[in-house]
Each structure stands twice: as structure tokens, then as C-alpha cells.
Amino acid sequence: MTRPRLVYFDFAGSRGEECRIALHLAGVDFDDVRITDADWPAYKPRTPFGAMPVLELPGQPPLAESNAILVYIGRQHGLHPKDDLQAALHEALMSYAEELRHQISPVLRITDPAQKRAAREELARTVLANWGRQVERQLGDSAFVGGDQIQVVDIKLYLVVRWLTSGTMDHVPTSVLDHCPKLLRLFRQVGAHPGVQAWLARGQRPAA
Ligand SMILES: N[C@@H](CCC(=O)N[C@@H](CS)C(=O)NCC(=O)O)C(=O)O
After folding, report:
1. Which burial class, exposed, middle or buried, applies to 176 when counting CB atoms under 10 A from its CB (0-12, 13-18, 19+)?
2. How many CA atoms lie within 13 A of 46 on its CB side?
3. Which of 43, 44, 52 to mutate to test the pocket of ligand 1 (most atoms within 8 A of CB)?
4. Which numeric CATH code is attached to 5-79?
5. Residue-wise pLDDT tens for the chain (208 aa)?
6. Ligand 1 center to residue 64 CA distance, Å?
7. Contact 156 CB / ligand 1 (< 6 Å)
8. Which residues, at least 6 apart from 42, have a Cβ–Cβ distance to it below 8 Å?
């Protein structure tokens, strides 16, 4: 291996996509390795914690956990605050985004149509609405969390907001974060960022 490899499912969303976008914005020449469902059981035991994304760096142990990967990329390439407290504040938001994903996952596994509808409507009304409200309280008037420069925290929030508001989660209305104008503005700013646009224009398989 001569250059970094970012390993994730062939899916243009969630934790893997946020790491790919961060690497792209950082200008890192990396191998975008897509693991198929068929190949996943063989690769899984080689990952640190049995999950992806994983960042493989030449001559180094594999790095797992999306937030650790994002912070590492951010620190190396000026996409994360240098000030320790500012960095910790960004990392708190990133952890809060991961907490949300862990709350959503069990609801997405419900298959019975009536139970699924009820659970997702309840999720939108309670967990998702509250998550947006709490994040909104942390945001200021600038385009991004840390001011007018995009950083890894913004990429993480962008992916989560895109997922929640995309309409791909049945019974979760696209208006679920309409009470969070600052968060929606950040989402639009990240989506309009030239580096993010350039990544999205590569024609990745669209996904929330
Ligand atoms: N906390 C981890 C969660 C990783 C995770 O759950 N990854 C999912 C994909 S988004 C996965 O690998 N699922 C397959 C499996 O667990 O077998 C992170 O932030 O990277």
C-alpha cells in the first residue's frame, strides 16, 4: 500500500461518505475502496472493531471510528480547530451526531408496517426534533460551526441533515428539521461548498 485507503460500503452516505468528503477536501490522494456485501464477512475481522469506515495508512495500524478518522484528517489538514477547547466543542457535536445514529438504527430495523410507521413517526416527533433543537442551540451566525471555513464537524452535520431531510426514511417528513434554520443554513452552505460539490459531481451512487 502506497497511499491511504478509505474502506467502506459502496454507499454514498453516512460515516464512510463523510470521511471520503473530508479526504477530498483535504486534497489527500486516497484509494476509495468499496467493500461489497459479499466481501464484508471476510474483511470484518480485519477491522479494529468489526465495523467501517476504516482508514488504512501505509505502515500504520488501521484507524476505525468515523469521528476519530475525521478528527485525524482534520488535524492533519487544517479542517479541525487547533485550539483544544474549540476542538473539543466540535468533537462534542460529532459525538452527538453519532449518538443520534445509534438511536435511529434500532427503529430502522422494525419491519412490521404498522409498527414501523408508528415508531418512525414517534422518532421524528421526539428524538429527531430534539436532536435538531439541541444542535441549533450550539450554532452561531456564521456559515459553518467554526466560522466561515468548512471543517470536519460541518461535513458530519451535513451528512446527518441530508439523511434526515431527504425523504428516504419512510414516515420521517422532509420538514423534520424546519425548526432549525441555522442547522439548515449550515447544511446548504456545506452542500454549496465547491470542494463538496466537486466530490458529489463525481457521480457517486446517490444515497441519503
Ligand atoms: N461508531 C462507529 C460505527 C461504525 C458502524 O456502525 N458502521 C456500520 C456502517 S455505517 C457498519 O460497519 N455496519 C456493518 C456491521 O456492523 O457489520 C463509527 O462511527 O465509525
Report:
1. buried
2. 12
3. 52
4. 3.40.30.10
5. 899 999 999 999 999 999 999 999 999 999 999 999 999 999 999 999 999 999 999 999 999 999 999 999 999 999 999 999 999 999 999 999 999 999 999 999 999 999 999 999 999 999 999 999 999 999 999 999 999 999 999 999 999 999 999 999 999 999 999 999 999 999 999 999 999 999 999 865 544 4
6. 9
7. no
8. none
CA of 17 to the centre of ligand 1 (A): 12
b/e per residue, 125-134, with b = 16+ CB within 10 A?
A: eeebbebbee
3-class state of residue 161 by DSSP: helix
pTM: 0.96
Q: Is the CB of 10 inside a 6 Å radius of any atom of ligand 1?
A: no
Specify the ligand 1 atom closest to the Cα of 105: 6
**Does ligand 1 have an atom closer than 6 angstroms to the CB of 65?**
yes
84-193 is classed CATH 1.20.1050.10: yes
Residue nearest to atom 17 of ligand 1 (CA): 51
Domain ranges of the chain: 5-79, 84-193
Contact 131, 176 (CB under 8 A): no
Cα-to-centroid distance, 51 and ligand 1 (Å): 4
CB 109 within 8 A of CB 129: no
